[in-house]
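Project outcomes to date are best conveyed with an example. Our students and postdoctoral researchers have been running inverse folding experiments weekly, and each run begins with a structure described purely in tokens. The record below, which covers 304 residues, was selected by the lab manager from last quarter's runs and is presented without edits.
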């Protein structure tokens, strides 16, 4: 217990560097988003009290930090213990040249992640809510349902990016390949979700149905976690990597679809979940369904 506490204290100053970097990354992400949007975000949030945009931006920041943590989750000098016998019992802060190389690597990965997240969000938006203009829905109509879906897109895409850059082996080409595969899984699952719901997803979201937006966002985050698992880990070869990816992708599809069906009967045996979402716009049911599929995907991540 005592030795572990000392080790933690030795790592603490170096860990604070990454905490500070996380704040800087979020600030840079804000600047990039300000640059890429034709409207003034500050004006929308303060003068027009645009909750839809606020929800979307919340998802954006969560997605950015998920990417940052993916870059940080490496066997780096900044987060591994100091094992030099000469340092035992001494306060070694570990600010070595290797440590600063690791800091720079995490920072560069994070900057690249900001760019990819902003670009991928536009692509996924066009393919997920392909019948709607998300900018019009969020800025002009202040459609909170659309804002929730976009927040789900940011978080799901952030998970895919984080998974594609973690681990050792491979290189930029493998990260880009699995990023593309992961985004494809997100889009295909969303289209599959739309096909397996008895209501028109686009019509409900366009009508500012927040409950349907929450349910869809929850499913996107859930498949994002599954996809994160599919692309997570060290790259040892294309055959093994692709086999693992498609196995987890298929299992995730089947599992999440099955959970949705079972939850209808087990959690809400006397009501129609589809009616609660589309007709009654029941936010309580929407949050429970979203929480259920996210929980099951998290179990899959840690149990397999």
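After processing, the design step wrote out the following sequence:
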């Amino acid at each position: 217990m005592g030795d572990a506490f000392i080790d933690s204290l030795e790592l603490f100053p170096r860990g604070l560097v990454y905490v500070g970097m996380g704040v800087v990354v979020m600030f840079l992400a804000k600047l990039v988003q300000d640059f890429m949007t034709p409207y003034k975000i500050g004006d929308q949030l303060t003068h027009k009290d645009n909750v839809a945009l606020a929800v979307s931006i919340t998802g954006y920041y969560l997605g950015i930090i998920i990417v940052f943590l993916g870059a940080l989750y490496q066997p780096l000098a900044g987060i591994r213990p100091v094992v030099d016998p000469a340092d035992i019992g001494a306060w070694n802060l570990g600010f070595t040249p290797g440590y600063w190389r690791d800091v720079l690597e995490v920072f560069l990965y994070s900057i690249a992640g900001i760019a990819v997240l902003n670009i991928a969000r536009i692509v996924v938006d066009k393919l997920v809510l392909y019948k709607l203009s998300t900018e019009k829905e969020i800025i002009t109509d202040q459609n909170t349902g659309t804002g929730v879906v976009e927040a789900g897109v940011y978080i799901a895409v952030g998970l895919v990016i984080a998974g594609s850059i973690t681990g050792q082996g491979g290189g930029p080409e493998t990260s880009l390949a699995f990023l593309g595969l992961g985004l494809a899984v997100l889009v295909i699952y969303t289209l599959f979700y739309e096909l397996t719901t008895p209501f028109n997803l686009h019509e409900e979201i366009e009508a500012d149905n927040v409950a349907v937006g929450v349910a869809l966002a929850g499913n996107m985050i859930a498949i994002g976690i599954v996809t994160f698992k599919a692309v997570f880990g060290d790259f040892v070869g294309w055959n093994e990597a692709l086999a693992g990816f498609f196995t987890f992708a298929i299992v995730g599809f089947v599992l999440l679809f099955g959970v949705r069906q079972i939850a209808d009967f087990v959690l809400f045996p006397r009501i129609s979940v589809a009616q609660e979402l589309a007709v009654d716009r029941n936010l309580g049911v929407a949050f429970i369904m979203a929480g259920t599929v996210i929980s099951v995907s998290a179990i899959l991540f840690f149990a397999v």
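The first helix runs from residue 2 to 36. The radius of gyration is 21 Å. The training component of this project remains on track.
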